[in-house]
Design brief:
binds magnesium ion, about 75% helix, elongated, mainly alpha, Ferritin
Length: about 170
């Protein structure tokens, strides 16, 4: 049996991952409306990955015979000032997700729940990558985004991102 606090935190994480998907889908809307289809594609792929994350937490609860409680998903809050504000909001969001997953890891540690700690290892590694990706996008935008030609090339690069199912959810 899972510790009740750990179960609640994981159930809450399902909601946070689906919110992430919703948020990035709205980022995609923002860039689509501006004609930056590459940026829109990048965030659509990101949204699909977030749905995978949600399902990994969902399955983990079921695999452990724990109750899955689903709450309402909040309306996404996309900053509309400029492109950089959107990218920065993405980084801040990932930092918050990292803190949330670290919090579950700490609670699992307190409960002596080594299985959940091991399960969360994949996400801890994934969050490091997510933060790096968000940082890199901001850096590229700072370097190339202020020039129309640079923005065109960056948009073309981001159009090339394709979706891959995460290895840990393929079994
Ligand atoms: Mg995620």
């Amino acid at each position: 049996m899972l510790n009740e606090k750990v179960r609640q935190l994981i159930a809450g994480q399902i909601n946070k991952e689906f919110y992430s998907a919703y948020l990035y889908l709205d980022f995609s809307n923002y860039f689509q409306a501006k004609g930056l289809d590459g940026f829109a594609n990048w965030y659509q792929v990101q949204a699909r990955e977030e749905q995978d994350h949600a399902m990994m937490f969902y399955r983990y609860l079921h695999d452990n015979g724990a109750a899955v409680t689903l709450e309402a998903i909040a309306k996404p809050n996309v900053p509309a000032e400029n492109d950089m504000a959107v990218l920065t909001a993405g980084l801040h969001h990932e930092e918050a997700v990292t803190a949330s997953i670290n919090g579950i890891y700490a609670a699992a540690g307190e409960a002596g729940d080594f299985r959940t700690m091991q399960f969360l290892g994949w996400f801890i590694k994934e969050q490091a990558e997510e933060e790096t990706n968000a940082h890199n996008l901001i850096s590229k935008m700072e370097l190339f985004g202020s020039d129309a030609k640079g923005l065109y090339l960056l948009n073309s690069e981001l159009a090339g991102r394709t979706y891959k199912a995460p290895a840990a959810s393929e079994e």
